[in-house]
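Worked example 2:
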Amino acid sequence: MEKVKSIRLLTLFLLTIMCLPTWAQELMNVSGRVVDDTQEPMIGVSVVEKGTTNGSVTDLDGVFKLKARKGATLVISYIGYATQEVKAGQNLKIVIKEDSKILDDVVVVGYGIQKKSSVTGAISQVKAEDIENRTITDAKQALQGKTAGVQIVSSSAAPGSSPTVRIRGFSSNVSSEPLYVVDGIRMSDISGIDPNDIASMEILKDAASAAIYGAEAGNGVVLITTKKGKAGEGHISYSFQYTGQSLARVPKMLNAEEYIQYMTEGNTFTKDYLSANWDGKTDTKWTDVAFEDSKMTKHNLGFSGGNDRGNYYLSLSYLNNDGIVKGDADTYQRLTATINSEYKIKSWLKVGTTNQTEKYNVRQVSSNSEYGSLLTSVLMLDPLTPDTYANGTLPFHVQNALNNKKHLLTDANGNYYGISNFYAGEQYHPMIMRDNNLARNSGFNINGSIYADFTPIKGFTFTSRFGYRLAGTRSSTTSLPFYGNGVQSRDYVSQSSQSSTSIYYQWENFANYLMSLGKHNINTMVGMSYQESTYDYVQGGLNANGEDALLKNDPLFYYLNFASASAVKSVAGEKTRTAKLSYFGRLSYDYAGKYYAQFSLRADAADLALLPKNTRWGYFPAASLGWTVSEEKFFTPLRNTINSLKLRASWGQNGSLSALSGYSYSTDMTQSGLYPFTSGINYLRGVSPSTMGNDNLKWETSEQTDIGIDAYAFNSRLNFSMDYFNKKTKDLLIWNTTPSLEIGGNTSPINAGNVSNKGFEFELGWRDHIKDFSYGIRANLATISNKVTYIDPSITRLAGSTFHTYTVTYFEQNYPVYYFRGYKFAGIDPKTGNPTFADLDKSGNISDGDLTYIGDAIPNFTYGLTITAAYKGFDLTIFGTGSQGNDIFNCINRPDYAASNKQKELFYTDRWTVNHTKATQPRAGAANMDKYACSSAMVFDGSYFKIKQIQLGLTLPKKWISKIAVSNARVYLSLDDFFTFTKYKGFDPEASANATSGMGIDKGTYPMSKKFVLGFNIDF
């Protein structure tokens, strides 16, 4: 026992001797405050006594306190900011600055990232700040006006609709949609990605940048990176947005007095008939009947954090958008969740996962159709018909329909909806059109990946990534009995439903190796990819056959299970599968940050569902060069003004899958009748070829050359870039070639079409500050020249979209893609008031030989402008975008319905009358109105400029919110899509019937609403 005590005393003595030097060093109180360049406090900054683990972090006011040795050095560090060392003291004020090396912009490229200063291709970037606090519900909308060379084509602004993106023009006769890649996963639709979860969007515009995606990149590539957590203290954020929506533009229609005058002038109705069937006071404005003010709300809750080994990001978003059509027939609800995480298990192994989940419900009303569209009906119905009949008083034609047991629909108060006694066509009361169908669509999407990065040696990283996409949809339509007018009614209820499932997965393995030898830097990447997708669906229908197809016209019975005995039943369904195997590689080289070169090659093989075996492989090479001129010695005198100047040039080839599907190259056989080859009543089924087959069918290929300049000047306050591109798409798939007279039958598609797109792109930005006032201006502009340069000689032109019985767009050599073709309006005959047209073929009459180019929807240039400013917590953003030189074909008024209402400025204001013979518009009831409807008279300038956003925000002072543990709080007001400047007289100058053959055709497109927005963001 004594021995043990002796050992303890000796140990204590030795420890005391060893610690004497430490105890001898006097400790002192250290305190201070850390702020950024704008004097705002920095929260969570690490303050550590150098050479020890003794330290602290700054609080909500940027203040830190600790005890340290007298004369010690403090190390101040924070991610994204330059590390500083200061001498320990009291009441220190430390200003930390952004680390230019750390914050040197990086852009995502295929299978890797690059510093922006090293990029040799044409890549544009849209950052999170361009997306946040906007009323966009689809990530595609964030691209409009924010970068040059990207155009958004919208065929509907209804809740739940998704626009189409066009990168550097219109390249195909089928589809020009780009490839979307979200966190490395290929996607055909990104509408389920909540914009709040996006960290950045890169647009690979030239072929060299996109060539690494080969056969899928012919129309450009949009790379989306979702947010990740950052090292440091955990972060909680919540944002809320309330949006009031209303109809932005209302076309001027004829009122009751004008309608009566126009119809009697044209002898469509006599005054006696109008007097007998009009109450003398009704003057219905159908836009007021159909539309109302509505609201949209958005919630987003996020959690993020991490340390030096891993990070996490979790978010949950809810969107509820009730459209501007009265009632709840145009609604969109979406619930999305994002889970991203990665962790460094070993120094040589990092694993991670990205996941986005979406559940949605959508209801939409009919639009964009001359054969029954709610949006078209408000422009065609006469103003003499009332919205509803009050006090139970029904006119004769309505009472007669009721006596004949027709199903007249009513409003919420039980009043019958108005039924016109003047206009009877496919368009009728918009609320009847809303209520006679119960259409519901819902579904889910689950997208994600699991990946691992192996780094066995310095500079070498091998990545294995498994990606997946699961989607399911459900839709049902209950067609209810109704009476719209004498030609539009339904006596019985019917039902149809469909369910579908899509499963996609990809497995990619690729390795990057970065090697530096003095001033030589070499980066190599090789990899492979396998993709497989399956799709299956089942649908069923119950059609009426003399009685309701359902047992009862009741919402509880609106399912396929409740079929009546007389119902005609239908069922369909099948499963399809496609797959693709790819190998790819890239070699990048730079010397001293001055000279750059990059080469890539991708080989893609399609399965037999797309291409025949002998042409299934496609090879897509690319090369690009760069020269940072500002790094040369001769540039030194200019470097203080022009900080960086780089020249770029690239060439490459990409492919397209848009027109390939369903064994289109194969020789198909069909049953062709019964034949009596034997005596008696025995017949044999005959079989004949239905298509001729094409074993030489191959990929569509896009070849593009790009020359660009990037410059930074005046201490990088000014940035400028310019690109010239020449894009040639060849081997388009063409149908309807003339078959051999000996063989007969139908031809399979052949590669027989070429399209050219060329133009310039400019991007310019300036940012600066004057004391506490900071501001920035960013502008972009892109020109486009589009032309079909070749089509198979056996085809004069390919027909596109139609208006009633007239084809109005065509795909033809030496013209823009799907240009407008019609008669050339030559003015009004002053003697008769009838429209006249140019006799181009000199035949003496107006016929198909006089049809010619009358316009196109492709703009000469598009542009965008963003202005930002901030002063002591207040911030202002003004964002606008527009296009110039595009045309709109107004296909609203069918000429076979003379009694339909008319747009005042198109048919009434300057019409011919006996007292006004020098008119620009035909007389009421004029001859040749069928030709007038598909002539240049109905083609209008669609140029526009829209102020998409005017937002004023206030960031609350830290001293106000720090007491409730809030690190940041901002409130804002915004006017979105409030102001549109255009000469077009319709609802929306961005109207399109569809994104390919129907660009610029207005058949009653669901219009953009103007929005008043109130929102706030809170960070904890």
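The longest strand covers residues 494-517. The CA atoms of residues 201 and 472 lie 26 Å apart.
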